Amino acid sequence: MKTDERHSTDERTSRALVQRSHLGPRDLTLTTDHPRPVPGPGEYLIRVGAAGVNFADVMQTRGTYGGGPRAPYVAGFEAAGEIVDVGPGVTEPLPPGTHVVGTGPGAFAQYATVSAAGALPVPDGWSDAEALGMVLNWATALAALKPLGGIEPGETVLVQAAAGGVGQAAVRLARHYGARVVATASPAKHDTVRALGADEVLDGRRPDLAAEITRLTGGVDLVLESVGRTTFATSLAVTKPFTGRVVVFGAASGDATLTTHDLVFAHPVQVKGLHIGTLATAVPALYRSLIAELGTLVADGVYPPGTPVVHPLADGPAVLESLEAGRTSGKHALDPWR
Ligand SMILES: NC(=O)c1ccc[n+]([C@@H]2O[C@H](COP(=O)([O-])OP(=O)(O)OC[C@H]3O[C@@H](n4cnc5c(N)ncnc54)[C@H](OP(=O)(O)O)[C@@H]3O)[C@@H](O)[C@H]2O)c1
């Protein structure tokens, strides 16, 4: 047995975090004898070096993620690690030993399967943990800003929850594409967002948020909306009529509603929905162009290696609880070997 496999009970099992109910992260429990998965068609089996924590993980623990797994299930769906086996039907597979970052069920474990079609090689010189976020946070931010958001230099972009995993990527990218960035975050996270280059940083919970954004900008061209219930009305109110776009890709505070009456009489703006997994499946050429652009951004140093806070696997429930409560900043990850 290798020293770094000290927690694995035998060759066929894997330490894993299993969600046993839909009562939230508190019912996520560590198991040491989960069967090691076998890669199915179109999948790689990877030895997970680091697993990414995402807000969707929280939603899955509560059963509110559309099409999410039903308990019991091994939690997590973003992982980076070394290919150890290749399932049938993978065209032009990367060789075993290659480190990739990708998505697949059961990522909070020592071994997990990821979709080969969506897996990207970890950039040269980057660790597994540093590559987390590439296919979720960064691809989502890029899709929201460019093909959907149609960002142009000189435009004003509002990024809600800007200190988060997607939010930080969005601030960096929006600045790179020449936009003025207005960002919202909890006050304790403002320095982090300013350091990324945001021009204005506001408390997303201040009661006069819409009035203040309108005062500062005269109306924004593009909003990245992922908070939902508590911010959606503000996002609509500050968007320029007709030319302004609101890209909706999450609802961390709960769902918001929008009526035809709203769109016709109150907020005649362009509202667009985004789910990066659905985009990859429904419009693969567009997804490939996003991935190619991410490669250019990495090569140009616009997208630097990630700096996630890496926790031991057993701390997963506490990390998810912090994410759910809005207490985290930036990207968090789990090390299944610690
Ligand atoms: N559609 C897609 O394909 C896709 C892909 C990735 C992520 N997402 C979505 O994008 C959003 C960001 O994901 P992430 O993983 O990067 O999470 P995150 O932004 O790191 O965490 C969520 C943040 O939302 C803010 N927030 C505001 N009100 C909140 C509330 N009532 N409860 C909890 N948080 C609240 C908090 O920041 P403050 O304390 O600063 O307000 C919190 O830190 C999520 O909604 C997620 O579901 C969607």
Automatic annotation (TrEMBL):
Residues 1-39 are annotated as: Disordered. SMART domains: PKS_ER (SM00829). Residues 24-334 form the Enoyl reductase (ER) domain. It comes from the Bacteria. One of its GO terms (molecular function) is oxidoreductase activity. Residues 1-14 have a biased composition (Basic and acidic residues). InterPro entries: ADH-like_C (IPR013149), ADH-like_N (IPR013154), ER (IPR020843), GroES-like_sf (IPR011032), NAD(P)-bd_dom_sf (IPR036291), Zn-ADH-like_protein (IPR051397). This is NADPH:quinone reductase. It comes from Kitasatospora phosalacinea. The lineage of its organism: Bacteria, Bacillati, Actinomycetota, Actinomycetes, Kitasatosporales.
